Amino acid sequence: MTTQEILIRAKAATRRLSELTTQRKNTALAAMADSLLASTDAILAANARDVEAAVGTISEVMVDRLRLTADRIAGMAQGIRQVAELPDPVGRVLEEHTHPNGMTIRKVAVPVGVVAIIYESRPNVTSDAAALALKSGNVCILRGGKEAYRSAAAIVTALRDALASVEVDPDMIQLVEDTTRQSAHELMTAEGYVDMLIPRGGAGLIRACVQNATVPCIQTGTGICHVYVDKAADMDMALAILDNAKMSRPSVCNAAEVCLVHQDIASALLPRLRDRLQSPDRAHQAELRLCPRAAAIIDGTPADDKDFDTEFLDYILAIKVVEDITEAIDHIALHSTHHSESIITDDPEAVDRFTAAVDSAAVYVNVSTRFTDGGEFGLGCEMGIATQKLHARGPMGLRELTTYKYIISGNGQTRG
Hints:
Layout: H1 3-17, H2 22-38, H3 40-54, H4 60-66, H5 70-85, E1 93-98, E2 104-111, E3 114-119, H6 124-135, E4 139-143, H7 149-165, E5 173-175, H8 181-188, E6 196-200, H9 203-212, E7 225-229, H10 235-247, E8 256-262, H11 263-277, E9 287-290, H12 292-295, E10 301-302, E11 316-322, H13 325-335, E12 340-344, H14 348-357, E13 362-365, E14 385-386, E15 394-395, E16 402-409
Parallel strand pairs: 3-4, 3-6, 4-5, 7-8, 7-12, 8-11, 9-10, 9-11, 12-13
Antiparallel strand pairs: 1-2, 2-16, 14-15
Helix pairs in contact: 2-5, 2-7, 3-7, 5-6, 6-7, 10-11
């Protein structure tokens, strides 16, 4: 099926989806979760072919991002079930008031319509996006990367079969077969068919969508995330948070890429951080990219200017020693992608300054940046992490996939 044919079918499906009750949507979601689990062997077989083709062409951490396991598929199914348990965002009365002439004006949440998602090598996005779109009353068009196409196709087959089994139109979930740049461009310029475009991937993909899209586009999640260790930090807490934020899964957008350390504790913290992140007992050791002041304390790779503007998505951490919290805030303002930043401190005044001044979608106090995630925020799963300010910001869940319309009721009012 061509991309244009998919666009036409998706637009037609929006009318049928608008008629589904909350109960029918939840029944469909339960069937989708069951079908994913029942199709585990087929999905894993398709994923194994994707992984085999990718090994040697993309980094090891990106291969991990691509790889599925039975546990990861079970997690995807659980994410769908969590979405089913959430309140239906459609039909919520956002505002209501009575006009002096007696008519009632209500602002009511409604689906966006057709949501297109262009994403790269994360197969779980396929099921997350489909579940969120269905529950919020939207049709989704999924355009995955070529590295994960077999995996995405197997997942979509399971999801569409589930919809058909409960007499819900399978066209509410569409997968673009063409993985060339042409199909991405078609989605970016599909006026009249695509109501919202969401890119999920690296900086290049997001930049291409923002610059070339003629349909409404959400700017999502390149994550140059910072952890600032203040002079009043608990040292053990700081080490544990930095370890988790950098090393637990470096290929995701909420992983820390930069550590800023107050000069008063740098000589005590950095040797312990180096020993922890480069322990020979670890499966992976972190490469440390050091500013001159950090390099005077520990050994590592000298950092150049681009290291503080790079989303490494790897076991690499840039480290800078700063004079005080003011320099830390200024550095973040200059280099952040406005995704997630954290301060480690026991000083309430420092907390207040940092949380007020740092202009990112998620700002943490004594917590790892790895929690910026729809599931962790109680959204079931997420459509992406919006780093812009209009309409949506942070993890995009069900409510961020709705817009609104005004419904005005009266008894014959006319305007003079």
